[in-house]
Amino acid sequence: MKIKFNKIYKSNKEKKYIMDVLDNHSISGDGIYTDKVIEFLKRKYSIMNILMTTSCSQSLEMAIRLAKVKEGDEVILPSFSFTSCANSILAVNAKPVFARVEKETLNIDINSIKRLITDQTKAIMVIHYGGISANIDEIMKIAKEHNIKVIEDAAHAIGAFSNGRTLGSIGDFGSISFHSTKNITSGEGGAIYINSEGIDKNNADIMHQKGTNRFEFLNGNTEKYVWKGYGSSFCPSEILMAHLYAQLEDVEKVTEERLKIVKIYNKLVEEFKDILFSYTKFNTESNGHLFYIFFKDLDKANKFKKYVNNKNIDVRTHYVPLHSTEFGKKYKNDFLNYHLEDDIDKKLMRLPLYPALTDSEIEYICKEIRNGFIYCNTSL
Ligand SMILES: *Cc1c(COP(=O)(O)O)cnc(C)c1O
């Protein structure tokens, strides 16, 4: 048996909707499938304002600009995160300030945030790792006290919640990814949720429409559209939105199937928790985006990986903490101790997790994962 790390979900409706666009509509953006996607997300997840984008990276950059983060400002984010998070901060010449993550969830650590806040802090960027919520209520409280904005990077988190609220809808901004590595996809794609009343929605529309008031024009409120301010091209093609809509209609089914597998893996690794530093705990509000195991010991991690790879099971490590990369080390802040993040990129492994896994494949993975644990724990 050969087990791939990921296979994208297929709903069988993608072709039908894409053909509908090709046969009956314009393939550029802001058409009926964009509207369908936005209405779906608004209704299902109680989101006030949504703009679709071509990626979560673009959504993060919009959020940083809309939060009015400027040159010299500081933005706190976990070092264990994706490059796009830090890049969005560099895009406006602000400074990424790296925080630690907590052991239980690998989400940003609250104490770390408290220690890093200065007069220059303009925003906190929160990643909901693997679709499991960060301690968002506590973060919102700290942000209010200091009058700073919260940007939720909910790239992993479509269909995931915290106390009934959809992830991405709680901070001032939420940023979603529909990249093909995520639960629901248009290949490339994203969305930005604009949640707080204090954000100039008109400014967001202008930024989204290449710096023009084209939205007013599309709504028939002006005869022509003109340059109004800073903007860029964030708008996804209708072909992408047709693909996305076909998948979104199945979001609950996808989540359910993923969580079923998470539950099985969770039970399996519980037996071996003495050799693990942490691992994904089953959580009914999560979306089963990923399942990770984090070894205490580097040698055991290497042995485990070698064993399961030999059994043709593709397990993957994850982010190299940004402060420990050659480019990122200039943003290392020395009063923080990063021991949790040391070697996390070699000690953390994600298991194959997607709805297309068959029962016999899951059985095979579980058998060999167990053997891998035993092997790395007993061999010299
Ligand atoms: C995937 C991912 C992104 C980037 O998403 P794109 O849509 O590919 O730009 C950003 N942040 C996190 C945490 C991600 O996992």
From TrEMBL:
Alphabetized GO MF terms: dTDP-4-amino-4,6-dideoxygalactose transaminase activity; pyridoxal phosphate binding
Matching CDD domains: AHBA_syn
Keywords carried by this UniProt record: Pyridoxal phosphate
Taxonomy, superkingdom: Bacteria
InterPro entries reported in the protein's UniProt record: DegT/StrS_aminotransferase, PyrdxlP-dep_Trfase, PyrdxlP-dep_Trfase_major, PyrdxlP-dep_Trfase_small
Keyword Nucleus tagged: no
Gene3D superfamilies xrefs: Aspartate Aminotransferase, domain 1, Type I PLP-dependent aspartate aminotransferase-like (Major domain)
Any one GO BP annotation for this protein: polysaccharide biosynthetic process
Active-site residues, record numbering mapped to chain: K182
Modified residues (N6-(pyridoxal phosphate)lysine): K182
UniProt xrefs under NCBIfam families: PRK11706.1 (NF008687)
Similarity comment: Belongs to the DegT/DnrJ/EryC1 family.
Protein name per Swiss-Prot or TrEMBL: dTDP-4-amino-4,6-dideoxygalactose transaminase
Species of origin: Helicovermis profundi
Encoding gene per record: rffA
